[in-house]
Amino acid sequence: MKVAPGLHTHADVSGVDAVRLFKVLSAEEADHGRYAPESILIWDGASQGYAGSIGERADERSVGISVSNIRHPEVIQCGDIIRLRQGGSLVSVLYRRGSPANSLFVTEQCNSLCLMCSQPPRDADDRWRLGELHALIDLIDLDEAQLGVTGGEPTLLREDLATLLGHARRRLPDTHLHVLTNGRLFADEGLADTLTIAAGDQTTWAVPLYGDNASTHDEIVASANAFDETLGGLYQLARRQARVEIRIVLHAMSIPRLQQLASYIYRRMPFVEHVTFMGLEPMGFAKTNRDRLWMDPADYQEPLAEAVHHLASRGMNVSIYNLPLCVLDPQIRPYARASISDWKNRDIPECRSCSVRDICAGFFASAGPAWRSRAVAPINDIRQPELIGGMINGLAR
Prior knowledge:
Blueprint: E1 8-10, E2 12-14, E3 20-25, H1 27-30, E4 40-43, E5 52-54, H2 58-61, E6 65-68, E7 81-84, E8 90-95, E9 103-105, H3 129-139, E10 146-150, H4 159-171, E11 176-180, H5 189-199, E12 203-208, H6 214-221, H7 226-239, E13 243-249, H8 258-268, E14 274-278, H9 285-288, H10 290-293, H11 301-312, E15 318-321, E16 338-340, E17 345-346, E18 363-364, H12 385-390, E19 393-396
Parallel strand pairs: 3-4, 4-5, 5-6, 9-10, 10-11, 11-12, 12-13, 13-14, 14-15, 16-19
Antiparallel strand pairs: 1-8, 2-6, 3-7, 7-8, 17-18
């Protein structure tokens, strides 16, 4: 469990005449010439030839933009990309060097209303984000291993999403793109062609499926015909040999048919590369619908273990996201991943004496005592070498 600082802080900001993005670099790295000088803020150094400087000595050594007296300097480091606004003190980190959880947030709109959505949709035209996202892509490290694409529902942008993905593919040819989508619009063959061609073969399309039947899935996503549309989209992706991940959020409405869903995925979707079982994030609609959704993870370990083993024993790649190791049946702990985005992760007192805290998913910052399992307790005896070997960094948004 690696906990990162937040993504926002305040500072004394001067010289900014519009909303702009900047790459924070040391003078030595800036001199390599990988990024446009007008987009670079030098960390604690002379800024001549660049947009400005940032850090303790920015106000006395800056030419142009100055960001000084940073309230929480640990929020920003060299390599990060920040947003500044004219007349404001807020400094927002949009990309954090070294984080496994960097993503492009493309829209707040969505065509589903999932009962546990952590990012409730808004019905507003927010295509203004696209210009900023294109600028962000130009400043991302060229050796970035993975970049998420999320919303809302990204495919609602249609051709504009294709243009954005194509830009990312050209600028970051070695970066794997991980797109979170409900998959429904892929039933449109033309759009499926446009998006998969733009994204290329280094892209995974992560699609949620919450039941093996329309009744269950459609109720959870609160959208009629969503199950049929999602299946249609998944099969269109399969026909294009796209890389597909299935995501299953674990709660009181999805657990009763979890084993049937696992069987359905194995029988009907042999093309799926990865299946993830995900703990609930207590944000947004999940809080509103707690009475319908909450189920202590300690009470669903048997069906979860059965579903995991059903798929894994048949050769499918399976992971468990967002659940701490202590609440999991020991037999399925090797499938757990340290998946919670670093800036969302928080420590709790029970973790401090735990011998596996460095490889554990930990807890969402939003998960107060009412959202924690009664099974939470330190693990102080590891006799399963395969546990350590099985733990890798995953990614969940």
